Amino acid sequence: MPILEYHRIVPLKQAGRSLAGLVVVPEDFDSQMAAFSGAGWHTITLATVADDLAAGVTPPPHSFVVTLDDGWWDSYTYAYPILQKYGFVGTFFVIADRIGTSSFLGPLQIETMAAAGNEIGDHTLHHSYLTALQPAALTAQIDTAAATIASITGRWPQTLAYPHGRTNALVTAAVAACKPLQMAVVEGGSTSETWANRFAVGRIQVGPGRKGADLLAQVQHVGR
């Protein structure tokens, strides 16, 4: 299952101090989604992938997942309308303690996107390096964030993105112990999704300047 990883969909002049490698301008994102749509591809959320995996169901052909990490304000202002334009949905991983703060999504925006069929995923409470934490702190980071999301959307998150893409056996066990969570993603990687590796699923990192045709060709290769 091709799972695309984005962080910011925003004009460069509005990106602030974000790392250049994490910024995709809206025009490029639009052209990428247009290429996928024109080729007959459609999106599903990562939660749908998790449900299908649990049920032993194969998603429809030409399915792919769009994920956006961190919950920046531009997820709603730029990414969400472009996804809507093509009838697509995304999985938005939000950092719980940044909800409603400057530069990040507010509760109403999150609620609106969730009501439109998008998934709101767990990106922990503080975006800490989980591999440096002890079990009690891990549980607080993962479970408190999940509860915060549920209080806004009315639905517990089913998936998580590890902050900084890092995990280990202790972190993975803490995620698995949070019962609503069924799947977790790392940064990069190319392994197929299985029940055994559902808490360490890889993604295709999309950086700046990617042409729609080039990204589509990569997605088509992964999706075979």
Verbal overview:
The protein has 224 residues and is α/β, with parallel strands linked by helices. It has a single domain (3-222), classed as Glycoside hydrolase/deacetylase (TIM Barrel), CATH 3.20.20.370. The protein has 7 helices and 10 strands. The chain has helices at 26-38, 46-55, 74-85, 107-115, 135-153, 169-177, 212-222; strands at 3-6, 8-9, 23-24, 42-43, 63-70, 91-94, 119-122, 159-161, 183-185, 204-205. The strands form 3 sheets. Strands 1, 4, 5, 6, 7 and 10 form a 6-stranded parallel beta sheet that branches. The protein has a two-stranded parallel ribbon with strand order 2-3. Helix 6 (169-177) links the parallel strand 8 and strand 9. Helix 5 (135-153) runs parallel beside helix 6 (169-177). The N and C termini lie close together (9 Å). The model has no long low-confidence stretch (mean pLDDT 95).
